[in-house]
Amino acid sequence: MDIFALKCILMSIGGRSVMNKILQGRAKSLKLPTHITIDAGRTQIAPNSRTVMAILGPAVSVDNVTGGLKLL
């Protein structure tokens, strides 16, 4: 039974400032919770890099935030 299943869609953004200022700001204005993951730096990614942003909510609301982004 998939009543609690969530979609996961990967998208590309223009940089950290886009994630922090534009996307998170839009999500907050729609009262959608967000989470930004900070990388530990144990691979090729530099420590403390913000690599992933999760936006939680109904698909229609999340699409209002992410609709203009390219899919990976």
Automatic annotation (TrEMBL):
It catalyses: an N-acyl-L-alpha-aminoacyl-tRNA + H2O = an N-acyl-L-amino acid + a tRNA + H(+). It holds the Pfam family PTH2. Keywords: Hydrolase. The keyword Hydrolase applies. InterPro entries: Pep_tRNA_hydro_II_dom_sf, PTH2. GO terms for molecular function: peptidyl-tRNA hydrolase activity. Its EC number is 3.1.1.29. The keyword Chaperone does not apply. This is peptidyl-tRNA hydrolase. It comes from Nelumbo nucifera.
